[in-house]
Structures are given as C-alpha cells and as structure tokens.
Amino acid sequence: QVQVVESGGGLAQAGDSVRLSCAVSGLPSSNFEIQWFRQAPGKEREFVATVLWSGDSTTYADSVKGRFTVSRDNVKNTVYLQVNSLKPEDTAVYYCRAVGRISGRAYWGQGTQVTVSS
C-alpha cells in the first residue's frame, strides 16, 4: 500500500524559510517521480517541483525557481521542499504526489498548510 504523507507546514513570516517533508512508502517500483503541488485559497492546484525517486533530475515551475529546492533522502524515503524567502503569496496547501513514470498512476498526500504573514 502506497502512502504519501506531508509534514512541516505552519505559520511563518515573510522572509522566513520552511522545509516541507514528504514521506513515501510502499512504491511498487523505483520508476516514480515525486512531485510537489500547491493550492492557494480560491485558486487551482499548481505544479511546483519534481524529483525522480531514483535519480537526481529535478524540475521547477518558473514561478518558484531560485527560492524553492527539492531534494530526496533515499535512506529516510523522504522528499523535501525547501522554501526560502517566503512571501505571503506562498500561502497555500502544499501537496506531494508520487506518480509512476510509465504507469502514470498517482498517489496523493493529504497536504500541509503553509501560511505566510507579511
């Protein structure tokens, strides 16, 4: 059974940094991507970043390049999203998704709320 569990959200002030975690377990193979999305109030869910479950390739949305860094710890089976220089517009629920690169099957986490005050 695949499980995807996010953590690390909370309240922050503009300019702060936060590191979100995505613990992944039960993947049927290593050929997965672990993706971060976010959904701000009243807006659609948007792609943020992705990293290969077995590999170093990363991709970022243009809107977050330079402030967001995605990384992976295979020992802990965890993917991280480091967000620096937080802005109020980063306020959103951040979701993690494991998606099979061949199967396309996707597994979502429940999300973690990040709220940034000015």
Write up this protein.
The protein is an all-beta fold. It is 0% helix and 55% strand. The protein is built from no helices and eleven strands.
Tell me the Rg in angstroms.
14 Å
The major pleated sheet works out as: 7 strands, mixed
- Spans of 5+ residues with little confidence (pLDDT < 50)? none
**Main structural class:** mainly beta
Which whole number gives the mean pLDDT? 96
The count of helical stretches stands at 0
The string of secondary-structure elements, in order, is: EEEEEEEEEEE
Terminal CA distance reads 41 Å
Overall, the morphology is globular
Number of strands: 11
Overall helicity: under 10%
How much beta, percentage-wise?
over 45%
List the defining traits of the structure above.
single chain, 118 residues, mainly beta, seven-stranded mixed β-sheet, four-stranded antiparallel β-sheet
Write a brief structural summary.
This protein is mainly β and 118 residues long.
Ordered list of secondary-structure elements with their pairings:
Elements: E1 3-7, E2 10-13, E3 18-25, E4 32-39, E5 46-52, E6 58-60, E7 68-73, E8 78-83, E9 92-100, E10 106-108, E11 112-117
Parallel strand pairs: 2-11
Antiparallel strand pairs: 1-3, 3-8, 4-5, 4-9, 5-6, 7-8, 9-10, 9-11
